[in-house]
Every structure is written in structure tokens, then in C-alpha cells.
Amino acid sequence: MGISFTVLSSGSTGNATVVRNEDTTLLIDAGLSAKRIDELLKERDLSGEELDGILVTHEHSDHVKGLGAMARKYNLPVYANEKTWFAISNAVGQIADENRRILETGATREFESLRVESFGISHDAAEPVGYSFYDGAEKLSVATDLGYVSDKVKQAISDADVLVLEANHDVEMLRMGRYPWNIKRRILSDIGHLSNEMAGAILSELLTGRTKRTYLAHLSRDHNMMELAKLTVRGAMEDRGCFYKDSEFRLCDTYYDRPTPWDKVSES
């Protein structure tokens, strides 16, 4: 079966992704209400009873809004590093002690035949992380909420067959937008969010022939558009000498209001 995934929702209004293989189904973040997550799961022919656990990237509300409710409703183990657990303790309500699992940054955990690696990222949170998933030779990496991409992050997500990567904003749209300057400065900082241009620059370094698809994620509804994101990312790659055919590599959409279709990592 290999790895399959669907991005249930992506953006500042809420984030959740499902990754599964033949014997494990995991939810990455629960940044919408439990009711809404259940609705999105149903759209992809899943239910909360089929989940084996929840992985948390960081404590911001658009990643943990429904975490406590989902964990309690379905008696799910929740995996996060210690600093993130401390940061979310007052926001998610009571979670059973046996379901409070520690997955430290940089650690690897086996979920049957699905291996998960955590890696640290740069964002204004207690100890934010991304995740890479392995099943045999297959690799899926998920990295959003990045102020910048460090060498360690590049190493963690390199050679992924499929990558879910942040392309949060168009810089000029953000600069001209309605946000106060202090918020704009935070978004543009090294602990903020990755712009379209920066996402393209990173992909130009990572595209070695193995990565077949990249899902552009966590797009700002105020300061970005998917077609603009794809155009800018591709332009930034070409500016750096990285040219490709659509048959070799594709940029894919994510949505804030509906899930992506199921995708198989091994799909050519």
C-alpha cells in the first residue's frame, strides 16, 4: 500500500493532515474544531475511530484548536515534544496521562511499518517541528510555519518523494496589505512564515529528481493566491537554473476549506 495522505485543511484558519499506510493512520495537527475535522475526514471516507494518534507541530491555535476534543472523543494518543506539551497544556483541556506521549525534536518513532522522524524548524513557538514519514523506500515530508529553511531542515526534507511545503505569502501583497506593521514584520522574519519566493528558492536546491510533487501549503487568504504562488515558486526556481517538465515534477494545491484528494507517495 505504501504511504497515502490528504491535506484536510491548510492555512491560518486551521491545519490538519492525514498520513497513513497499510497499518497506521495519523493526524498531523488538529487546528479546526473536532466537528469540522470529523466532517473533513468523512469527505475522505475516514472516521476518527480509524486514527491511531495525533502528531503536533506546535502550539498555535490554528494547529491545536480541536486537539483536546479529538483526543478525548476518540481516546487518541497525542505526540509532541516537552516544550510544546507545556505550551498547549492550558489550551487543550484534559488529556489522559496515558495519551500524553513525548516525541522529542529530532527523534524517530516507529508506528508499525510507518516510521516518523521529527525535525526542528524556525517559527515563533516554543519548539516547533516538521515531520518526515517513511515506509520502505518511500518518503513524505511536511514542513510549514517556517521563518526560513535551515541546513538541518534541508537535510531533513531532502530526497522526499513528496513534499508539503509552506508558501505563505506574496511579499508585495503582504507589504501593501491591511496588517499592522508589527505583524508584517513578524511574518517576514526568520521566525515567521515562508514566502512564495523563498519556497521556490528552497525547491531549486532540493529538486534532485526524486521529488515528484510539492504541495504548496499554509497560503495566506489575505496576501496570496494559489495561482500566484505556483507562478512565483516556479519563476524563482527557473531564475536559479532549475527547469523541469510537468511530467517530471508538479506543484499541487492545498485548500483552507476542503481536503485535497488522497495521494499516494509512490504514484508517478
Automatic annotation (TrEMBL):
All copies of the Metallo-beta-lactamase domain together span 13-191
Q: So what does this thing catalyse?
A: 3',5'-cyclic UMP + H2O = UMP + H(+); 3',5'-cyclic CMP + H2O = CMP + H(+)
Q: Which InterPro entries match?
A: Metallo-B-lactamas, RibonucZ/Hydroxyglut_hydro, WalJ/YycJ-like
Entry coiled-coil feature ranges: none
Cited SMART domains: Lactamase_B (SM00849)
Keywords from the named record: Hydrolase
Domain of life of the organism in this record?
Bacteria
GO MF annotations, alphabetized:
hydrolase activity
Give the function comment from the record: Counteracts the endogenous Pycsar antiviral defense system. Phosphodiesterase that enables metal-dependent hydrolysis of host cyclic nucleotide Pycsar defense signals such as cCMP and cUMP.
Q: Which PANTHER family match?
A: EXODEOXYRIBONUCLEASE WALJ, METALLO-HYDROLASE YYCJ-RELATED
- What name does this protein carry? MBL fold metallo-hydrolase
Species, as recorded: Paenibacillus kribbensis
